[in-house]
Amino acid sequence: DAPVSKSLLDNLEEFQAAFSMWLPQLNKVDIVAQSETSSAPAAPADDAVVAFSGGVDASFTAYRHLFRKAGKRHKNLKTAVLVHGFDIPPDNEEAFRRAADTAQTILDGTGLSIASVRTNLKPLLGFSWEQAFLAALGACLHQFSANHGTALIASGEMIRESPIYLAALLLLLGGAFTKSAQVPFHFWLPN
Asked: What does the alpha-carbon distance between residue 110 and residue 88 come to, in Å, rounded to a whole number?
């Protein structure tokens, strides 16, 4: 019976539209409030928070926006978020500390620092994590919406569409093969 903000209703409608595109078997429902309140002033739309695991997709997304390579889709990254409880169980503090240190090392020199969000949602879910992951990540990033108008979630599609994709892939593979001295790069090893 309490008033609900117009922005909450708008966001729930948008969330349902996106989620039903991902899982078409789910039906959208009408969400109605008895009374609506005006929304709080919006954060600057170009200020963004990025989900950042330190992986290739997240690193590429951060790179594209930090170095203005995203064209008209460019956003000003203000915060990188690493979620504790998705890939690393909430009770494994040491593994999360190492992951956070690695992610911060990747971001060193960019002006971004890692903000962490801790959740125990994954073990509590009664259905497929693959179906809930994006919604859970969006919920974590939403915690930053007062100061960030946009949340960015990495996609491998953007990497594959990049004009430098093939060169970067070959350099990464070349580095892995030469560092581990795989054939034909084994000749320099001592006998």
From this structure: 25
Provide the pLDDT for residue 180: 57
DSSP symbol at 187: T
pLDDT at 84 over 90: yes
pLDDT at 9 > cutoff 90: no
Query: SS3 string of 52-121?
Result: CCCCHHHHHHHHHHHCCCCHHHCCEEEEEEEEECCCCCCCCHHHHHHHHHHHHHHHCCCCCCEEEEECCH
Burial 12-38 (b: 16+ CB within 10 A, else e): eeebbeebeeeeeeeeeeeeeeeeeee
- Burial per residue of 121-146, b for 16 or more beta-carbon CB atoms within 10 angstroms, e otherwise: bbeeeeeeeeeeeeebbbebbeebbe
Listed residue (7, 73, 75) closest to 39, CA to CA = 7
**Selection from 127, 118, 113 nearest residue 86 by Cα:** 118
Q: Is the pTM of this model over 0.85?
A: no
Structure tokens at 34: 């008895």
* Collapsed DSSP state (helix, strand, coil) of residue 141: helix
